[in-house]
Design a protein that fits this description.
The complex is a heterodimer of chains A (361) and B (286).
Chain A: E1 3-12, E2 15-25, E3 30-34, H1 41-49, E4 56-61, E5 64-65, H2 71-74, E6 76-79, H3 91-101, H4 110-123, H5 139-152, E7 157-161, H6 169-186, E8 189-194, H7 197-203, E9 206-211, E10 214-219, H8 221-226, H9 231-236, E11 241-248, E12 251-254, E13 257-260, E14 269-275, E15 280-283, E16 290-300, E17 303-310, E18 315-321, E19 332-337, E20 341-344, H10 352-360
Parallel strand pairs in A: 3-8, 3-9, 6-7, 7-8
Antiparallel strand pairs in A: 1-2, 1-4, 4-5, 9-10, 11-12, 11-14, 12-13, 14-20, 15-19, 16-17, 16-19, 17-18
Chain B: H1 13-40, H2 44-51, H3 54-87, H4 93-100, H5 102-105, H6 108-119, H7 126-129, H8 134-139, H9 148-173, H10 176-184, H11 189-218, H12 221-227, H13 237-246, H14 250-281
Helix pairs in contact in B: 1-14, 3-9, 3-11, 6-9, 6-12, 9-11, 9-12, 10-11, 11-14, 13-14
Classes of the chains: A alpha+beta (361), B mainly alpha (286).
């Protein structure tokens, strides 16, 4: 089922939760809605399900306008972060709920329902647990039951709201791979919400990055990482540092040195140059485009991170260095940038610290 | 062998355990034990004879029967009241919410007199059903005060807050996602209510029912004014105990008291067991 979201708007008082969102979701794809908390990703997901009524815009399921349809009529599978299993029902009855009580669905015989439930339990690898109550299962198992329950109604779209958010890291990794498998087996159009960029990048075909209720960029994980469309995406996805520059005739000028700007053409005037640490390499002060002094060195996994103070205003640039490179704090160095992008100076620069914090959470 | 003393990170089990016994003994066990002791000194034959007197039997049946019915009615309507008070916000909600507590706070005699005045044949509500009213021309006159129906009204009045107050916190804690999950699975609102919401609040509903019932069985003040106290018809068991005492018939009074004690105990035990069972099913294993 193809989804089309057109000019979707939702306000909470004066605060726009969704600001004119347009998004096409292809049939059978697994797409992630990624953003920090408060970015509107969950609101968008809930609006697709019909759990939230938008203030404007439309949502199409195929050619059908779903905006006026009730939750019950939309036939979506929704998986909640905290599972929302019915605690007073056995696993079998939980999964069978939609088959038994769903409106406008053809009634199945109990034997058929049971067969279907056991089939689904097999799919989510929980054979033999149909007689248990939810309280007798672990978190990961409960989330798999929730998924089976959502799949039971043969939904047109599968929507997952931070499905692994409440689970610990080990379980989360396993379930992530497993969800991808299930998606490939069943072929449902799947939308899932996450604030974990690693999860979004690893799991999905495409990623839609949201910020403050607006869509920043939609693309494959590679596109999002390698060619961020906005300063926010640059800052939110992966690591980056930035330098204030003056843009003039397609060139970025940093304290008299000019750098040719590649793909993004910001208007002339003040701008910012965004660089990822792994795209910075060190040379002698004479050879580098920009000169600076190393003010800090930290070990980070297989690399060393260097904090470099650059220019007269002591702007900070981060570089990822191979550990064998011999540098020490206080060295004067030249910097070369393999890849970078310049954007017009933002009135409100994205808060890097905040974005970082969300990823770590 | 279940271990009696389990080492715990929180000390003081011995002290608190002893305190619980002492406190319960002084407050509940010794007074009630005295009642049972005195009744048993009568001997089974005499006890049986006292309890099977027609007026005693009628009073016990009336007390327990009406209390059960009133508690059941309160369970249904108290649930609706609690639901509206927790789920919706409307002008005057806080006022209504506060009004629910009034039966708790009011001296029961005041409640009884007020109810009697209103439900008497010449009262505001009573006159709507009395001789000459529209109701009477269709169904015949209905007397509320001074009949078992009047007792029922009083018992509903005093029991309502118990149900509402036990349900409110549970309803406001109810996970909204459960209802949303039910809706996304295609269930109608009514199905969600009966299959998802009600089973979840059922243990709390039972607690509220038990409290309302217990209160109704022991209720005296508000009932005696409205009951009319016709022996064998609208005379409740607590009143009969008082009557016996006034006649210096201590044995008779004790026999009725013991019967009430035993019946109440078993009914409450039954309710508690049902509640524990349904709680366990919900995963609140204690």
């Amino acid at each position: 089922m193809e989804l089309k979201i057109k000019n979707l708007r939702k306000d909470y008082g004066n605060f726009p939760a969704l600001n004119d969102v347009n998004l096409d979701i292809r049939s059978g794809e697994l797409i992630a809605l990624l953003g920090p908390s408060g970015s509107g990703k969950t609101t968008l997901l809930r609006a697709i399900a019909g759990l939230e009524s938008p203030d404007g815009g439309q949502i199409f399921f195929g050619d059908r306008d779903a905006s006026r349809q009730s939750v019950q009529e939309r036939n979506v599978g929704f998986v909640f972060q905290h599972y929302a299993l019915f605690r007073h029902m056995k696993i079998l009855d939980n999964i069978a709920f939609g088959l038994r009580f769903g409106q406008g669905r053809k009634r199945k015989s109990e034997a058929e329902i049971r067969r279907k439930v056991l089939e689904l339990l097999d799919l989510v690898q929980l054979n033999g647990l149909e007689g248990r109550y939810p309280s007798q299962l672990s978190g990961g198992q409960r989330q798999r039951v929730a998924l089976a329950r959502a799949l039971a109604i043969e939904p047109q779209v599968l929507l997952l709201d931070e499905p692994f958010g409440a689970l610990d890291a080990q379980v989360r990794k396993g379930l992530r791979r497993w969800l991808r498998q299930i998606h490939d087996e069943t072929g449902h159009t799947t939308v899932f919400v996450t604030h974990d960029q690693e999860e979004a990048m690893e799991l999905s075909d495409r990623v839609a990055v949201l910020h403050k209720g607006g869509l920043q960029q939609v693309g494959t994980p590679d596109e999002i990482y390698d060619t961020p469309a906005t300063p926010f995406v640059y800052a939110f996805i992966g690591d980056s540092t930035s330098l204030p520059v003056e843009v003039h005739n397609g060139e970025a000028i940093f304290e008299g040195r000019t750098l040719r700007i590649g793909r993004v053409d910001p208007p002339d005037g003040p701008g910012r140059l965004h660089i990822r640490p792994q795209d910075v390499s060190l040379t002698t002060p004479a050879e580098g485009v920009v000169r600076g002094q190393i003010i800090g060195l930290r070990r980070s996994g297989g690399y060393r991170r260097a904090d470099i103070s650059v220019g007269v205003k002591h702007d900070r640039v981060e570089a990822l260095l191979p550990p064998e490179q011999e540098v020490s704090v206080g060295d004067q160095v030249g910097l070369e940038f393999r890849r970078y992008a310049a954007f017009a100076d933002d009135k409100e620069p994205p808060k890097l610290g905040l974005a970082r914090e969300k990823q770590a959470a | 062998m279940p271990q009696f003393r389990v080492p715990s990170a929180i000390p003081g089990f011995g002290l608190t355990y002893g305190f619980v016994w002492l406190y319960l003994a002084i407050v509940i066990l010794i007074p009630l034990g005295a009642v049972v002791l005195f009744a048993s000194s009568l001997g089974p034959v005499k006890l049986y004879a006292l309890l099977t007197r027609s007026d005693t039997f009628a009073a016990l049946r009336l007390s327990f029967g009406l209390s059960l019915i009133a508690a059941a009615v309160n369970a249904v309507f108290g649930l609706i009241v609690a639901w509206v008070l927790t789920r919706y916000s409307f002008p005057g909600r806080r006022l209504l919410d506060a009004a629910v507590d009034l039966p708790f706070a009011l001296p029961t005699a005041v409640a009884g007199i007020a109810l009697t005045a209103i439900y008497a044949p010449n009262g505001w509500i009573g006159s709507l059903f009395a001789q000459g009213s529209v109701w009477a021309s269709w169904f015949g006159p209905l007397k509320i005060a001074y009949t078992p129906l009047g007792i029922f009204v009083a018992l509903v009045f005093i029991g309502l807050p118990f149900v509402v107050r036990t349900l409110q916190p549970v309803l406001s804690d109810l996970d909204k996602e459960l209802e949303e999950a039910s809706a996304t699975l295609g269930a109608k609102r009514s199905v969600t209510l009966f299959k998802v919401v009600l089973p979840t609040v059922f243990p709390a509903l039972l607690t509220g029912f038990a409290l309302a019932f217990a209160r109704a069985v022991g209720e005296y003040g508000s009932v005696i004014f409205i009951a009319g106290n016709i022996p064998g018809v609208s005379e409740i068991a607590p009143l009969l105990i008082i009557t016996r005492l006034e006649q210096f018939d201590y044995a008779g009074a004790t026999a009725i008291a013991t019967a009430m004690l035993v019946l109440s105990f078993f009914i409450l035990l039954l309710v508690n067991l049902t509640e524990a069972w349904s709680r366990k099913r919900l995963g609140h294993v204690r």
